[in-house]
Amino acid sequence: MLIQEVVDVRLLDKITGGSVIGIDIGSRTGKAVLLSRGQVYTSSVYTGINMQETADELLEDLLDQSALKRSDIDYIVGTGYGRIALQYSDISSQIVTEISCHAMGAHYLNADVRTIVDIGGQDSKAIRVDPLTGGVVEFVMNDKCAAGTGRFLEKVAEILELTIDELGQEAVKSGSPSEISSQCVVFAESEVISLRAKGETRQDIAAGIHFASAKRVRNLLKRVGIEPGLIFSGGVSNNIGMRKALEDLSGHPLIEAKIDTIFAGALGAAIHALNYSKAAITSTQEAEDVFRLDLTGLENRIAERQDQLIVNAEDRKKVGYLCSYTPLEMISAAGVSHIRLFKAGDTHTVASGEQITQSVFCDFTKSILGAFKEKDPLYTSLDKIYTFYTCDCIKTVGEAIGEFFTPADIYTLPRIKDKPSSRDFYSSQILSFKADLEQLSGNIITDGELRLQIRQYNEVRKLLTQISELRKRPNPPLSGKDYLDLVKAFYYLPAEELLPLYQGIYDKLAAVPVREDRTIRLFMAGGIIADGDRKLLELIEDELGARIVAEDHCTGLKIASGYIDEEGDPYRALAEGYIDQTPCARMKPLQERVEISGGLATEYQADGVLYAYLKFCPCYGQIKNEFFRHYQQLGIPVLELPIDYSKSDQGQLKTRLEAFIEVLRERKGLTAVGTA
Ligand code: SF4
Ligand code: SF4
User: Fold this and answer.
1) What spacing in Å lies between the alpha carbon of 388 and ligand 1's midpoint?
2) Strands 318-321 and 337-340: what pairing?
3) 202 by DSSP, 3-state: which?
4) Gap from CA of 533 to ligand 2 centroid (Å)
5) What share of the chain has pLDDT > 70, as a percent?
6) Ligand 2: does its nearest atom lie under 6 Å from the Cβ of 362?
7) Distance, CA 323 to ligand 1 centroid (Å)?
8) Nearest Cα to Cα of residue 100 among 521, 656, 669
9) pLDDT digits (tens, 9 = 90+) for 547-577
10) Ranges assigned E (strand) in 203-301
11) Are β-strands 608-614 and 521-526 bridged in parallel, bridged antiparallel, or unpaired?
């Protein structure tokens, strides 16, 4: 086909140059587009088990059609579900998310496109496009469940003994779509069976199913803001039942393209390939001289400390605490060892904990409980568990630990931090905590020892802040993962050991020459990132090449935020200092936390915010919009990431993060992505 038979004629002058290919490997179908010498070639095949073989098949077909040789191809961009498997040793290549590729492809199909609905086999997305460049302005994806995706329609087609195409054709014949309340594949199956038993027709059930799916997609569209100029792309886009349902529900006619819009992603990939080839961007390796902080010694020391605690090498009482409102100075002044219970992050302990909670809890709290149930040697070696009552999940888990495993005491923490009565009450709780620790340890907590601990912990927090501030450099000498490792040490090692350790690390990092090259800087906000829950950080920093430069979640910079007055009554000083730390999201007024978060993101020059929270978290999940509004007022884009500890959403998370980072890079002009 001639290029003007495919691409919007208003954009034709931007497509100049050599021969480039976009390959979109979807979960069901692989599509590819070749742009060469004013022609467009397309190819599609079913996706096989081996994604590279699928891509090779597409490439060969395009070469056959165009009579080109591999050596004639200037650049390939891979996209879609299987993009990460694509590798070419003889042709320059990159991978780009399907979100950026669908946006670019849809823009080139019709420059009037503003909003895209992309429904594939595994997921659905709504994307808002920059009408000038074809870049992504905003996007949302469905969560990992199959509702509203091609998989959902396929499953229903199977139950109705139709092909997926027939399902769409039946749907448009219906005059009275069935009411389908279930969005879950599993429940929809039984609902469809019961509708058939009631005598509802295939047409009506098929139409009902399409409407139910389209409603789900409309919710995504609302989140990015539907603007006229709506196009439907992706593997499901030629299903007429879904097209009709989308038009009816969105109130906007769908833009028609000159070719099948299942090729939109591959076309966008080809346009990206063209831009990459013009900018001569090749897959880059990080420079050899990048400084890497070696924390192996620290990790070994933490492991050794855990072993020492298990065998009680110091012959002291040992306690575990759950939340950051537990004054560690007091525990240390009582001559008691302490650890924070934050070893969580695997599905096995979540499942074990679930047997006890049997209710909707966040994975962190279920995992803590599960670790006790699984007889984690460190946790079961503890003499007592303390927590100051913060969120309801923490409180209930503390109570359950006390009931089933290890003695536990829960102190009440006021919710409103600024009232004088709250401070009086917290002081009284701290005095009760003192009496409890004295009874447990058999030691008297003296004012002198408590003051010494207060001074030491103040120094420790100061050092952690100084280390963090090195992350304000254009190219920070430590990663977000490194910083969390330093925080982890805070949870296991005593202050007197932390002091020289942090000082040594600070000195080493401060001596690293400042590098001016800038990377994408991300600020991580939201709930807790537990010890075993590093999948997000690894994706961001190891795979996607961005840096976490600061964080205000429960296990990040927050622990360095409190300062305890070293003069006066040390008990009152502890109450004041701990209540004035960066407030946890269950504290009121919330606005203070929101402003601290925005302030840190600005101070650390974040390009974007990742707001990650555990599903079912009653704190960070509920109040997220107040944070989002504030970041947006500050002009910092935000990506919402509801997470859990399962591995099944790894692919989806990666696509979201990758697309977000692509958008940020484009805003910063850090790559050639975008129209030439
Ligand atoms: S966010 Fe609050 S409730 Fe949750 S773990 Fe942190 S301090 Fe505890
Ligand atoms: S604040 Fe949320 S994430 Fe943190 S422990 Fe409570 S429920 Fe879990």
Assistant:
1) 10
2) parallel
3) helix
4) 14
5) 95
6) yes
7) 5
8) 656
9) 999 999 888 888 888 899 999 899 999 999 9
10) 230-233
11) parallel
Give the C-alpha separation, 301 to 361, whole Å: 33
Amino acid at 69: K
What spacing in Å lies between the alpha carbon of 397 and ligand 2's midpoint?
Answer: 11
Contact between residue 356 and residue 398 where contact means Cβ atoms under 8 Å apart: no
Q: Backbone phi, then psi, for 658, in 5-degree steps? A: -60, -45
For 114, residues 6+ apart whose C-beta sits below 8 A from its C-beta are: 128, 129, 131, 227, 228, 229, 230
With contact defined as beta carbons under 8 Å apart, do 579 and 417 qualify? yes
Q: For ligand 2, what atom is nearest to the CA of residue 584?
A: 1
Residue 285 has a pLDDT of 43
- State which ligand 1 atom lies nearest to the alpha carbon of 324: 7
- Strand order across the 608-614 sheet: 547-551, 521-526, 608-614, 638-643
Q: Which residue type sits at 675?
A: T
Q: How confident is the model at residue 282 (pLDDT cuts 50, 70, 90)?
A: low
pLDDT digits (tens, 9 = 90+) for 58-97: 999 999 999 999 999 999 999 987 787 778 888 888 889 8
Helix (DSSP H) and strand (DSSP E) numbers for the chain: 23, 17
Q: Which ligand ends up closest to the CA of 593?
A: 1
Q: pLDDT tens across 425-455, in order?
A: 999 999 999 999 999 999 999 999 999 999 9
b/e per residue, 106-123, with b = 16+ CB within 10 A? bbbbbbebbbbbbbbbbb
Query: Is 527 touching ligand 2 by the criterion CB < 6 Å?
Result: yes
648 CA → ligand 2 middle, Å: 21
Residue 177: cis peptide before it, omega within 30 degrees of 0: no
Ligand 2 atom nearest to 586, measured from its CA: 1
What pTM was estimated for this model as a whole?
0.81
Q: Tell which one of 391, 531, 590 to mutate to probe ligand 1, the residue whose CB is within 8 A of the most ligand atoms.
A: 391
